[in-house]
Specification:
With about 325 residues, the chain is of the alpha+beta class. About 65% of the residues lie in helices and about 10% in strands. It has helices spanning about 1-5, 25-55, 60-80, 90-120, 125-165, 175-190, 205-210, 215-230, 255-270, 300-315; strands at about 195-200, 235-240, 245-250, 285-290, 320. A 5-stranded mixed sheet has the order 2-3-1-4-5, sandwiched between helices.
Length: about 325
């Protein structure tokens, strides 16, 4: 009880009873302490609210220490305000002592915290790293787009190779069949003309036997060039078999197809093959010509032009036979 009575002994002369405390001086102290107490009690609440809402803060405990320090400062000012009229100086001393202890502890913890805080990247460092990440992302997107384009180009290249004859660079049989399906469908849908030419080199085996397969390949390449030169941009040329070539002629009737076939036959007959290699190999060809009829399908159309070709060969070769 003696200790409690001593703590709450208000017999000491309060500041406000001192003759030197004039009204204006009293006003300054009272107003200053009231405002300070209010601020020192509100600030800890704000710090505690911040810590509760932001659990991801790296050093949230330091905010609690500051909140305790500021709160005790507010308590000290509150007692100082009371002591203007009541002399509870022991209580004020205890409050100041507690404030001092918390202040020293907070200061020590701050100094221990400084090395850890210094390694935290600054806003400029974050901004620089963020810009670097954005640049890396941009470069990655560009690389992905380039890779996708290369994959697309490579896919197209592979598709082209899959449909192209490796020797003559015209369509192979698979590519021809795909285009023939398209042209037959178009002819049926729009009631358009469509003619086919099947070209076969006469006695081509003799070329391979006499000059070798290397020069035989050269002959096939030159034949493909002659046929390509004779075709229009809308025509489709492909290698149907060993020495057989097939021409698809959209928007072409039987008469025009026949004229083209005769021109091709003459071009091949008058051409000297392998001249660059010192040879003048002469060849002829047989050509079958047919026109698509609406009651036909792709298979019957090929059979028809194939029959015309064999008819040309059976009738003496080096000629054009038309399916009248």
């Amino acid at each position: 009880m003696d200790l409690v009575n001593k703590l709450f002994n208000g017999s000491f002369m309060p500041h406000g009873h001192c003759l030197q405390w004039l009204p204006d001086l009293l006003f300054l102290h009272v107003t200053g302490d009231v405002l300070t107490v209010f601020a020192y009690f509100v600030i800890p609440l704000a710090l505690i609210y911040l810590v509760k809402k932001r659990t991801d803060l790296a050093f949230n405990w330091i905010f609690i220490m500051f909140a305790a320090f500021i709160f005790l400062c507010g308590v000290t000012h509150l007692i100082s305000l009371v002591n203007i009229w009541q002399g509870y100086y022991y209580i004020e001393g205890i409050a100041k002592f507690a404030t001092g202890l918390v202040s020293i502890l907070t200061a020590m913890l701050i100094w221990r915290l400084i090395p850890k805080a210094l390694v935290i990247p600054s806003n400029d460092e974050f901004r620089t790293k963020n810009e670097a990440l954005l640049q890396a992302k941009h470069e990655l997107l560009e690389a992905n787009q380039l890779l996708e384009q290369r994959v697309l180009d490579r896919t197209k290249e592979l598709q082209h190779l899959a449909r192209t004859d490796s020797l003559t660079s015209v369509l192979n049989r698979g590519g021809l069949m795909d285009r023939l399906t398209i042209e037959v469908d178009r002819a049926v849908r729009y009631q358009h003309k469509l003619s086919l030419l099947m070209v076969d080199l006469d006695h081509f085996k003799h070329v391979n036997d006499q000059y070798g397969h290397l020069y035989g390949d050269t002959v096939l390449i030159e034949v493909a060039t002659i046929l390509s030169d004779a075709c229009r941009s809308t025509d489709v040329l492909g290698r149907y078999g060993g020495e057989e070539f097939l021409l698809l002629l959209p928007e072409t009737d039987l008469e025009d197809a026949k004229r083209l076939a005769e021109r091709i036959r003459l071009d091949i007959e008058q051409h000297h093959f392998c001249k660059k290699d010192g040879f003048k190999i002469s060849l002829t060809c047989s050509i079958g010509v047919t026109e698509f009829e609406l009651d036909q399908n792709q298979e019957s159309l090929l059979q028809s032009v194939d029959r015309m070709l064999y008819s040309a060969k059976d009738s003496g070769r080096n000629r054009v036979v038309v399916n009248e």
